[in-house]
User: What shape does this take?
Amino acid sequence: MVNPARLPTEIWREITTLACTDGGSTGRSLALTSKFFHSQSLSTRFHSLSFDSLQRVEDFLVFLREQPKDCKPQIAHLYLSFTGEPASSTPRFFLAYARMKRSERAEYDREAKATKELWDERFRPAAAALFTLAAPTLETLCLVEERLQVPLEFPHTFPKLEELTWKGWFEGLQPASLALYDNPYKFPVLRRVHFITHDKAHVVDALAAAASSSLTHLRISEVLRADNRLPDALARALGIPTVLVPAGATTSTQDAAAIPPSDQTVSALFPHLRNVVVLCTAASGGGWSGHYSGIWLDALDRFHALPRKCERQLDGVRMSFWDRPGRPNERWPDRLRHDWTNRMQGGPGCWVESIEEEEVDIYEDGPFE
Assistant: This one.
């Protein structure tokens, strides 16, 4: 039988690092195989970590405190999801809430507020400890929440973070917070950003303060009717003058209107941006208000004009605008974790080149919960 101890420690470190790209399950298995692999994987079994609750984060931090002093985790990939927290509510709950009496709602609101305050008190020190540990070595970060405002701040610099994905409301990723990250840069080498959140136009503008000199890939998903200002924000990001398409213009006149005079130039917020993907899941028209429907249809015209502008005015820049109907359950937590794992393993993740590539099994509709 071959003795694994004959292989140099440096080689085992490379092997275990390459193996630990699934969120932690392989690292746990290695640690339980034998005493040899337990010791060899001590520094690399935490190469990628995935947590689906605050309790899991707290348990991990307790576990670390019990490890030998020479255990110094090098966390390169981190996924955090808070979709199942008690402080959050499911869509099914809102139907029940609507049927409550006023007194019942008031009582529930008081209890919900108290639950959230206790959750925040637990979350802040746990998040601070986790990111103090992870910030120096972190390369990819994926954050997911639904219907829960997470008080996650970023007091540290992330010198190696190259890819950031988030869905929902995180305090440190709000426009007002992002705008403060320019001195010093919080994300000096950040190259790829994918986000699903509210106030998308302001997020794009604020990102310029956090990663204007390094960003090469930008994806924005679940664009809705409220995002009618996003086309102008993307035009600023790319350095394309904003030109309004005249109402009632034909396709040919829209193309003409989309091309500004050759002497008209605008400085790009992201001068190194090379790939932009926008996934729209809003209905194309109709609705209860003709006024707001008209605003959205105008925004759609500007969305569709942007890829043509990129092709004609910008060398080496690709922009894709995909417009499809929304679904009852987009399963974004599953989708984002799938993309995060796929990127670690060398795949494209969310950075596909067509809407057809996007439609894989993990993205199929599930039951509405």
